[in-house]
Amino acid sequence: MMSLARGKLNTPYTVNRVNTDHEDIREFLFTLGCYPGEKVTIISKLASNYIINIKDARYSIDEDLANAILV
Amino acid sequence: MKIALAGNPNSGKTTLFNAITGKIEHVGNWAGVTVEKKEGDVKQSLNPRNEDLIVVDLPGAYSMSPYTSEESITRDFVQNENPDVILNIVDSTNLSRSLFFTTQLLELGIPVVVALNKSDLTDKKGNTIDIPALSDALKCPVIQTISTKTANNGLLELLNAVITLGKSNKKQNSPNIGGVKKALTKEEFEKVDKKRYAFVNNIVTEVERRKVSSEKQTMQDRVDRIIAHKWLGIPIFAVIIWLVFSISQSWVGPLFADIFVGWIDLLYEGVASLLGENVNPVVGALLLDGIIGGVGAVIGFLPLIMVLFFCLALLEDSGYMARVAIVLDRFFKKVGLSGRSIIPMIIGTGCGIPGVMATRTIKNERQRRTTAMLTPFMPCGAKLPIIALFAGVFFNDNSWVGTSMYFLGIVVIIISALIIRKITGDYSRSYFIMELPEYRWPSIKRASISVLMRAKGFIIKAGTIILVCNAVVQILQTFDWQLQVVAETAPETSILASIASPLAILFIPLGFGLWQFAAAAVTGFIAKENVVGTLAVCFSITNFIDVEELALVGGSAEVSTIFGISAVAALAYLVFNLFTPPCFAAIGAMRSEMESPKWLWGAVGFQLCMGYVLAFLVYQIGTLITTGTFGTGFIGGLIAVAIIVASVGYFMRKGSKGTQISAEMKSVKV
Fold it and tell me: Residue B544's pLDDT is what?
């Protein structure tokens, strides 16, 4: 298990856990389809952000959140 | 019949709402443009039998469990206000996420019609969706729509389905996953939601065929790598904003402005000759200099503003603005905000009020309040005439004035956020996540419509509030306290001058300690356009931008001579007006978004101090550089600024101490 922040580009990872004290962001990620068992792919790393693909949409997340998503 | 529009952010709800009601609500290619519910009637051509159809546009939501406050508006509406039909807008390029919310809506018992929007994009990507199978699986009508098109867009068919279903009085069949209406424990809730996603995944694998899987790199991703690049991102943004100001202030804008100002002059002369010589000079001056001159001076800038808004609308439509948020996120993070705060500020470039309202998409309370407080520092549409006026009169129409004010706004926001974080002592971090919209070619038509709407608003405002203000200013400067007409040689005896003069003393260290400027700054709180209007009335100048006339009399030197201040002081006055509190309407918006009198008064006080200190620095440092000595009133101003800095410093230390204490208390507990 590692954090998404250390993941490689263009490699589909399976979400293992969202490691945070903030319950609401976990729930929010869930509604986007980012929860244990689902796939997430890093598309690019820009500025301090990660562009990720969940389901069929692109999101920009910051490093803190990329660190919290364990794959 | 009440029809609620619900769906994920950026699925095109407002575009569809505009298409079926004929209204012109603000749209943009990013998530979270709409933050309030809006109502409208279906237009005649889509409602041939003239039924009573009210459509309610709601903010986008990803699910029935709201993350931010504008999402809860949507949930509350569909749950409590009993719409007759829910029109669920689904982005057809993203079925696998959108249908999650759809299945929740289906369980409310209210008839649902699904509009598979953006179906042109699905076709372009070579994806296919089996509509009958999808309709079967969801047990509700599914209709393909392209709400950006004017014909063959599926909207008539969509409304037919809505009307039929709304009249049938049938309860919606649901896929029965459960959990939306019942109170569940967290574990049960999670289980239900997983089941829900499993249900959606099954449907999607059944009905959708994708040519290219979505996690593959696309052309758009390559564009993002350049546009949102760590180092290239900022220069690209700067060039784009400079282009916007150049086109509107130096290249295209002035062409239109010349023609337009010519018309205003004709009107002025026409009314003047109509009045003739026999009209009472006070009434004549009120009508000509006060009303036509003052309003005309403001309206004269309309062409420049329209061109600027046209360029900004194209940018918004293209999807670029969401990338700006990524580029600036890094800097905003350092001062306790995030890229989320950029969106309200970009909207605030049009008008501060919707900008401040857009702060509800920010989850964290301190960040939301801070953003609401700082959004008015962006140069809004009403401040543009001030920028254009001073750029034209003192700086030869240089587009760097507007561009630098825009970026100065961003820098001041970043510095202010840092100060506010210290004062509040709240160092909490929050996560940043934002959906990235796809780029698209901006539509000239959409941009034109949005510009015409803004122009209409601007003209209405000029014809009402600004007209009244200018008339009042004209009257106050015509009479003295004995209600006698002021002699032309002694304008300083007028009511206006005697009210504004004490205030003007405060402005001496800022370089513009003249009562006219003080009066204009005060009327600016009613509406920022008034600054230009009041200056026009007080100095009896009818137009500021007639390039032809200015060229004849040797450039804009004449207007600047009438103003009687140096270019440095003019820049200081510009800065002062941009960074003092916004107009009352925007302060009202701040009040309702902040929900705290303490924050509101703190914000207004902070803005006043910021405007004063910045104008002081610009004037004194500028004068030192240009003339080698400090400007007027340096010592007095320095004392005032020192007091401001010391009190802000005191609050910052107090705030940080508070954090230390609470941190110590925490460590004791551990």
Answer: 61
The answer to whether residue B211 neighbours chain A at the CB level (below 8 Å) is no
Structural domain including B266 reads: 234-660
Checking if the pLDDT of B428 tops 90, the result is no
Does residue B229 belong to any structural domain of this protein?
Answer: no
In a domain, B669, yes or no: no
Which of A20, A24, A35 shows the shortest C-beta gap to B67?
A: A24
Shortest distance, CA B108 to any CA of chain A (angstroms): 18
In a domain, B223, yes or no: no
* B509 lies in the same domain as B566: yes
Stretch B398-403: mean pLDDT, rounded? Answer: 87
| Distance (Å, whole) CA B428 – CA B430 | 7
Q: How far apart are CA B224 and CA B240, in angstroms?
A: 15
B65 CB neighbours in chain A (<8 A) are 27, 31
Confidence of residue B236 (pLDDT cuts 50, 70, 90): very high
**Residue B165 and residue B241 in one domain:** no
**HEC readout, A37-67:** CCEEEEEEEECCEEEEEECCEEEEEEHHHHH
pLDDT digit string (tens) for B87-96? 999 999 999 9
* B174 and B242 inside one domain: no
Shortest distance, CA B369 to any CA of chain A (angstroms): 20
Q: Do A51 and B229 touch (CB under 8 A)?
A: no
- Count: domains in chain B: 2
Last residue in a domain, options B209, B243, B272: B209
Instruction: Tell whether B609 is covered by a domain.
Output: yes
Domain harbouring B90, CATH code: 3.40.50.300
Verify whether the Cβ–Cβ distance A62 to B329 is below 8 Å. Answer: yes
Q: B265 and B120: one domain?
A: no
Interchain CB contact of B160 with A (< 8 Å): no
Nearest to B353, CA basis, from B381, B332, B325, B324: B381
Q: Are residues B422 and B491 in the same domain?
A: yes
DSSP string, B310-366: HHHHHHHHHTHHHHHHHHHHHHHHHTT--GGGHHHHHHHTT-HHHHHHGGGG--SHH
**Looking at the structure, do residues B157 and B10 belong to the same domain, yes or no?**
yes
**Residue B116 host element (H or E):** strand B112-117
Residue in A44, A49, A56 closest to B329 by CB: A49
Residue B116 touches partner A, C-beta closer than 8 Å = no
The verdict on B440 touching A (C-beta cutoff 8 Å) is no
Q: How high is the ipTM of this complex? A: 0.96
* pTM of the shown model: 0.91
8 Å CB contact of B100 and A33: yes
**Residue B97 and residue B3: Cα distance in Å, rounded?**
23
Contacts of B278 (CB under 8 A, 6+ apart): none
CB contact under 8 A, A60 and B233: no
- Indicate the residue of B97, B322, B326 with minimum beta-carbon distance to A33: B97
| CATH architecture assigned to A4-70 | Roll (2.30)
Same domain, B242 and B193: no
- Other CB atoms closer than 10 Å to residue B275's CB: what's the count? 15
- Considering the domain architecture, whether residues B246 and B199 belong to the same structural domain is answered as no
Contact B431 A20 (CB under 8 A): yes
